[in-house]
């Protein structure tokens, strides 16, 4: 947010010009409860004619020389992000609950001297506050993500995905973490499951959490579909089922969005490089039928149609009709 004098300086105009523009409707300022005028960064970009998002420099610019903390860092995305950034970041901190997964990750990255491992739970606000001291960038990937598990354990899903995300936001504001990114899901769009609902709320907490922070702390999110090589992915499921002689599909017409792990890492780093706070970065992806996916990764294996689970959608969305009104192609 910019005061009248700050905005005038950035646009190289007088404060009186800004007041005149506000009265004429050319550039209308927002107002505090005490009637002080202020402007958003979006208004500055629009008034100055500058592009919002521009891919420049290296994809690791946002983390180079920085201390980066990844919640849920022992997962597939955490491994891939660590591999990409550990040679550029000052320090990479893996924050997660499972000792065994951390021990395995330590062995995999044994030659990386700038990686640290902290046991903790995003439900524990105090532990997060301690872990985030001195952190410049936080990538929030920890969550409960299995649809059926969230449905069967709704209160636990709320504690992890909503309250846990709120804890991350508040701890980042407390520690003045410069950039914080939420890794979300296409199931948050027009959500029909409890999991999707919790991720939708987490998105809203993050993009609107900028209202609680100064310009020193930026909160943003990414939203995308299934990642080929992630733990528990449908690819792994089909390959395992193929060994047993039958692949199970919920609906023959079902489609899903898929992307590679490298593309997922690219998207998250692009978001960190380009965020001005309050966005959801969404990739352009083509939907693939589950039947085609089964034929690719379990060729020649019989398929059994088992029916939809709960409120599972046949077709996922990445952007809702309402969101299209506010979408920028970058």
From TrEMBL:
InterPro entries for the chain: DNA-bd_dom_put_sf, MerR-type_HTH_dom, NAD(P)-bd_dom_sf, Polysac_CapD-like, Polysaccharide_Synthase-Rel
One Gene Ontology term from the biological process aspect of the record: regulation of DNA-templated transcription
UniProt-listed Pfam families: MerR_1 (PF13411), Polysacc_synt_2 (PF02719)
Limits of the HTH merR-type domain: 1-36
PANTHER family cross-referenced by the UniProt entry: UDP-N-ACETYLGLUCOSAMINE 4,6-DEHYDRATASE, UDP-N-ACETYLGLUCOSAMINE 4,6-DEHYDRATASE (INVERTING)
Family from the record: Belongs to the polysaccharide synthase family.
Designated name of the protein: HTH merR-type domain-containing protein
